[in-house]
Amino acid sequence: MSAVWTPLLPAATVGVGRAPLATPDVPAPITEALAALESLPAAERLLKTAAVLDVCLQAGLTLPPAPALIAPAEAETRPPLPMAAADVLRVMLEEAPPRLAAQALAATDRAGYRLPPSLLSLALEQRRTRPALAPLADAVLGKRGRWLLATRGEAAPVVSSDPLERWQTGTLTERRAALAELLTADRADGREQFRAALPQLPAAERAELLTVVVDTVTPEDEPLFESLLKDRGREVRLLAAAGLQRLPASAWAARMRDRVQALVRRDGKQVLLEPPAEADASWSADGIEVKRPKHESLGERAWWLYELTRRVPLSVWQAATGLDASGLLNWAKAGDWKEALRRGWTESLAVSPELDGLLAFGRAGMRPWEQAPLFGRIPTAEAERFWLGMLQGKRPPLTELLGSYEQTLGIADTLPHALAEAALAIYARDLAAERREHWHLAQLGLALSILLPVDQLPTLRALPGLDSLNAGNTPRQLELHLNLRLRFAAALAAGASGPGVTP
Amino acid sequence: MSNAPPLTAGAVAALAPDAASLKAARGLLGLKGWGNLGIDGDAAWGECQGSGAKPYQTQVDLRGAAPSFKCSCPSRKFPCKHGLALMLLTLQSPAAFGNARPAWVAEWLDSRKERAQQKEVKQAAAVQAAADPAAREAKLAQRWTKAAKALPELKRWLSDQVERGLGTLDAATRPQWETMAARMVDAQCPGLATRIRAAAEHLGGGAAAPLKLLRELGQLQLISEALERQQTLSEVQRTDLTVQLGWPTPREVLALGERLRDAWTVLGQIEEEREGKLRERRVWLAGAHSGRMALFIDHAHGDRPFEALYLTGTAFEAELIYYPGSAPLRAMPAGEVSPAAATIPGDTLAAAWARLAARLALRPYAAVQPLVLAGARLSVPAAAAESPACLVVDDRLLPHRLGRNPQERLLAYGGGHPLRLFGEWDGDALQPLSAWNEAEPAMAPWQVQA
Predict the structure, then answer these.
(1) CA B355 to chain centre
(2) Number of domains forming the structure of chain B
(3) CB contact (8 A) between residue A14 and residue B167
(4) Mean pLDDT on A155-161
(5) What is the pLDDT of residues B412-444, one digit of tens each?
(6) What is the structure's pLDDT at B424?
(7) Is some CB atom of chain A closer than 8 A to the CB atom of B162?
(8) Which of A44, A348, A494, B44 has a CA-to-CA distance to B301 between 20 and 30 Å?
C-alpha cells in the first residue's frame, strides 16, 4: 500500500482528535488542494483529504520501481506444432486416456516439433499429475516451456548424462534406469555398485533394483545371487532364486535339477511321481520355503512339490519324464498332484519362458490368475510369437491379449504390427458374426482404438457393424479416439495449418 | 464471403455452453451421421441423424459479427452439440460441404433479417417516446428532494466514523453500517447503500482495514459533497451523480446518448457471476478512428448464452450509443454491424495515466477503468524466481490480479517478452483481460478466461 497515506493513518485509526493529522507528501498541484483543507474541522479534513488522495491513486499517483527480472525466454530452435495438431492434442491432454496424449507427444518429438505456448500450461499441469507423461512432455517443452519451469522456481529437468551420478542421487525409478545402464557399460562394476548400496536399502527397494540384475542375468552374477538367498526380505530371496534359475550352469540350478529328478521314476512306459515325503535340511539355504503358508490350499507334500517345481525350467521336467509340454499337462491331469505341478510349471514359465511350453499351456486353457505373472516377464519378441500362436487357436483370447498389452506396453507404444493385424482380423470376424455381447465388442473396439498403430485405424473405423453397437456411451468414445488420433496424424503429416484455421 | 471472422476450433469451443456439449459435439464429427451438408457466404447447414426417425436440421447464420445457431433437436443447450459439430466440421472436412441452399435454410435466414429490421423500428419508437419530458422531470425533482433530505444524516455518519477511529470498528459494527445502508435505500439512493455495504466488508479486516475503510469513506465523502452542490453542477455532471446514487437511466434518455460510428476492436472481455444465477459480461471496445474506448455490459441468466458473441482481437464497424455522462464509457451497439480490420492500441505508462487523469478530472468517482499498455512484461524477479509474477511497464511495478492459472498461461504466452496488455484498473491493481505478443502480432491473443 502506498506511503502517501501514512500521515493520515494514525488519526484515521484511533479517531481524529486523538492523534495528529499531517498533510501527505504529494506533488505540488495536489499539495495546494490539500493545503486548502487544513482549516476545516478535523473529521471533515480527513474525509476530504482521503477523497482527493483516492482519486489521485486511481490515476496512478505512485507505483514502485520494478525489480530486475529474469532474462526472457530464448529463441526457439524447433517449429511449433501446427495449430490443427495442437487443437487435437489439447483435447487429448484434457479428456482422452493418457495413452493417446503420450502417443501424440512422442509423435510431436519424432517430427521435430515443440509445443506451442498455448499448450505449455496444460502440459506442465499434466506433467505434474501424470508422471508417466513427464519424460515425453519434457522432450517437447521447447525453450519457452523450460523458461516457464524456471519462473516457478523449478529447475528445468536436467537429466545427468552420467549414470553413476543418477545412481547415487536419483529417485528409485531413476536408479533403476541408471543401474541398467551401469550394468550394460561394465557388468562387474555395476554389480559392485549394487552390492555396495544394498545395506542402506529397505527390502522393497532391494527387490525393485534386483529385478534389473535378474532381467539381464549373466553367469558372473551367480555369487551375488547365492549371497542374496540369505537376504532378510522374502521378495529378495525369491528374486535371487529366479536369477539362479536362469543360469542353467549354476551350482544352485544343478542342485534344484537333482532334487526334481529324484522325484520322477520311469518304469518302462510309465512315468511315476513321488513327491517329497519330508523337507530336506539343505532346502532353506537354497531359498526354498519349507513352511507352508497359513491359508494355502495345497497339502504339505504338494506344497514342497510345488516349491521344487517352480524353481526349475520346464525343460528339466521334460528331460526327466521324456514328455513334451502338452504331454506333461496330460500326465499331470491323470495323477493326484496336478494342482501343485500346474502351478509350479506356470510360475516357472514366468521366470524362464519357453515358447512351446507357453503355447501348450495357453491352448490348454490357462486360468486368468495363472496368466497374470507370465505377461510381464516374457521378452517382447517372444510375447509377440506367443500371442500370434494363441490367436491361431479355436478360441482366440482377444480380450486377454489386449488386457496384457495394456498392462505391459510402453505408454507411447502401440501393438506390434503383425499382432495388430491379426487382432483386427479376429475382431472383424467377431463383429460381423456378433459373436460376443455388444458391450463386450464395444470394449474391445475401444481398446483397439487406443492400442492399434495409427495406420490401421481406418480399417477399424470401416468395419461394418461398428457404429451400430448398442453399448451406451462406448461407441461414441471409440469414435472420439479414432477421430482424435487420425486428425492428429493428418495434421502432423500436413505440416502446416489445416483448412479454415487462422495463422 | 462470410462476414464472420474465420473461426478456429478454439473459437468454436468458446461458443459451447459447457464442456459436456463440446465433448458431445466432438463425438459427432464422423461424416457418416451427416447428410445434406452445405455452406455458402451467409450460412452453413446440415442434417444430423439423431435418435429420432427424422434427422435434425442444423443451421448456422454466418452473417453477423458472430455465428447464430438453430437446430430442430430438442436440446435446451444453446448452441446444441449439433450446431457446434457442424461448425467444427466446416473446419475439419470442408470438402464434404456443398453449396445448394435448401428451402428450410433460406426461410430461416429471411425471417432473421425481418426480425432485425423490426427491432430497429422499435428502437426508433423509443426515441419518440422520450418526447414526454414533463412527467420525467417531475419524478426526478422528487428524487433530488428526497436525497437532499438524507444528506445531513450521511455527513454526520461519515464524521462519526472517523471520530471514533476506523481501527476501533470491527465486525460488531456491521449492523450499524447496515442500518445506514438501509436509510440510503429509503432515501432512494441504492447506489450509496451498495457502497456502504461493500465498505462494511472490510470491517474487522485486521491491520489493512483502516486504510481500506478510509478510501471507501473518502469516496462517499466525494459523492455527498457533489450531492450538496448538485444545483451548481452541469446537466451532464448531474447525470454522473445520478449513476453514483444508483438511479436508473430511463431507456428514452439512453436513446438520446451520443452516437459514434467507428471500427471497434474487441480489446478484451470478462464474465462474472452476479447475485442469483445472473452472469455479467463486460466487453471492452476501442475505436480505431476516434481513439475512444467503450464498455458494453450485458447479462444472461443461468446457462443461457449471451445474445451476441464478441471475439477478442477482431473488429466490427458499427454505431455505438454511449450512456450519457462526462467521461462516457458505457455504450451499446445500435443497428447493423459489418466486419472491419482490428487495430490494437497501446500506451506508454505515462500516456495511460494522463488519459486516465483526464477522465477522472471530468468524473472523479471510483470506477473500473480500461488500460492498454505497450511494452508490458510479465516475468519473475531475478532475485527470487517464484510466483507471484511481476508485471513491469516502463520500469514500474504494476500490481496485478492474475490468478494462478491465467498467470501461468500469460507467462507461457509472453515468455518474458514485451506484451501489449489490456486490462481493468480499479485504482489498486490491474486485472489483465487480454494480451498480444509484440514480437509476434499474428499470434492469437492471450485471454484471462480461456
Answers:
(1) 20
(2) 4
(3) yes
(4) 58
(5) 999 999 999 999 999 889 999 999 999 888 888
(6) 97
(7) yes
(8) B44
Contact call for A71 and B416, based on CB within 8 A: yes
* pTM of this structure: 0.69
For residue B420, give the 3-state DSSP assignment. strand
**Min distance A412 CA to chain B CA atoms (Å):** 23
| Domain-ending residue, one of B87, B103, B125 | B125
* B308, three cell numbers: 451476441
pLDDT of residue A123: 93
Q: Whole domain around residue B147: which residue ranges?
A: 133-245
Partners of B392 on chain A (C-beta within 8 Å) are 66, 69
User: Residues 6 or more apart from A151 whose CB is under 8 A from it?
Assistant: A70, B379, B380, B385, B387, B389, B411, B416
Residues B332 and B296 occupy one common structural domain: yes
Q: B106 with B143, same domain?
A: no
Please write down the long-range contacts of B247-251, taking CB distance under 8 Å and 24 or more positions apart. Answer: B247/B143, B247/B188, B247/B189, B247/B191, B249/B323, B249/B324, B250/B130, B250/B136, B251/B126, B251/B129
Please tell me which residue, B283 or B7, carries the higher pLDDT value: B283
**Residue B178 neighbours by CB distance under 10 Å:** 14
**Residue A276, all three cell numbers:** 517329497
The residue-averaged pLDDT of A284-309 equals 89
Q: Which of B23, B381, B387 sits opposite A152 (nearest CB)?
A: B387
Label residue A502 by pLDDT band (50, 70, 90): very low
Q: Where are the domains of chain A?
A: 3-58, 83-151, 163-247, 260-376, 379-497
Cell of residue A226, nine digits: 547365492
Cβ neighbours around A305 below 10 Å, total: 24
Q: What pLDDT, on the 0 to 100 scale, is given for residue B433?
A: 97
- B413 vs A contacts (CB less than 8 Å): 117-118
pLDDT confidence band for B126 (50 / 70 / 90): low
Q: What is the per-residue pLDDT across A439-470, written as a single tens digit (0 to 9) for each?
A: 899 999 999 999 999 999 999 999 988 878 88
**Left if phi > 0, otherwise alpha if psi is -120 to 50, otherwise beta: which for B410?**
alpha
| B 367-406 → A contacts, CB under 8 A | 369, 377, 379-383, 385-387, 389-390, 392, 395-398, 405
Length of chain B: 450
Query: Do residue B91 and residue A17 have CB atoms under 8 angstroms apart?
Result: no
ipTM of the complex model:
0.73
Checking phi first, is residue A128 left (phi over 0); if not, alpha (psi -120 to 50) or beta?
alpha
